[in-house]
Amino acid sequence: MFEYYSHMGPVMISKNRSAEMEVFVxxxxxxxxxxxxxxxxxxxxxxxxxxSRLETRLGVRLLARTARAxxxxxxxxxxxxxxxxxxxDIDEADRAASQSAIPTGRLRVNxxxxxxxxxxxxxxxxxFGRYPQILLDLTFxxxxxxxxxxxxxxxxxxxxxxxxxxxxxxxxESRRYVVAAPSYLARHGVPDTPQELADHNCLGFNFxxxxxxxxxxxxxxxxxxxxxxxxNNGETLRQLVxxxxxxxxxxxxxxxxxxxxxxxxxVLTDYDPRDPEEVHAVFVDKRHMSGRLRAFIDFxxxxxxxxxxxVPDKSVSP
Length: 318
Prior knowledge:
The radius of gyration is 26 Å and the shape is elongated. By secondary structure, it is α/β, with parallel strands linked by helices. The strands form 5 sheets. It has a 5-stranded mixed β-sheet with strand order 6-5-7-14-8. It has a 3-stranded antiparallel β-sheet with strand order 12-9-13. It has a two-stranded antiparallel sheet with strand order 1-2. Helix 1 packs across helix 3 and helix 2 (33-40) crosses helix 3 (44-58). It is 38% helix and 20% strand. It has 3 domains: 3-96, Arc Repressor Mutant, subunit A (Orthogonal Bundle); 105-172 and 278-309, 3-Layer(aba) Sandwich (D-Maltodextrin-Binding Protein, domain 2), CATH 3.40.190; 176-274, Periplasmic binding protein-like II (D-Maltodextrin-Binding Protein, domain 2), CATH 3.40.190. The protein has 10 helices and 14 strands. Keywords: DNA-binding, Transcription, Transcription regulation.
């Protein structure tokens, strides 16, 4: 029977499965039994016996050991992920029981470049003012990541969601506008109907979940369009449109200020299908939601809908 001091105080490992999980997690993160033992105040042999007993109880191998390396098996990786969630729940239960519980710790947030920079970042000063003890670990990329594999706590997504089994919470809705720079329209004219887009340079995206087909109120199917460039993120597309290269279909919150300032012009407004795309927070499971994740999502629900409804909707004539 082994005893060591964790964040919960002295623990008798043989009678405490959460303590077993803590030791196992420490072994995975330390990369060796000896280093995990050093951190926990246990001998390497004691850690090894504990891991062996845990594997015997579960009936699976959790670690693959060689002379030079120690790695988790597929079962070990799954057990590690679940252990992290359970230990986080225990920590959260401790904090929730305290009168002075305050959300703390690191929160890993993923979003597209456009959503992150144009929608999320302007809201963050208010969030940091409310929750100064939460550290946001922000990753903005237009690659759709697997939040379980990348161990992100929450991802912000625009548009249709795949049936991934993840939990979601709707944050608001955003429309898309077909826009062009005045310089482009001066050279090529203003399209009066969707059919005239065949004579225009319609810029789009190059990823599989493409938004390039544009819908219009009169169409029953998406209209395939062609242009001189395809890009992998909305900000690059915006810059090309601002430079007068062609037409683009972009989120209202992304180009609203450009429209009001006259840098971009909305076209084909009479054919606007008014089909808003939903903005969601995507996360693993509400049962394992930490206080910091709950605080962040509740904040987004409160702030994102007003931010989207405040998007300028002024149409400017070329």
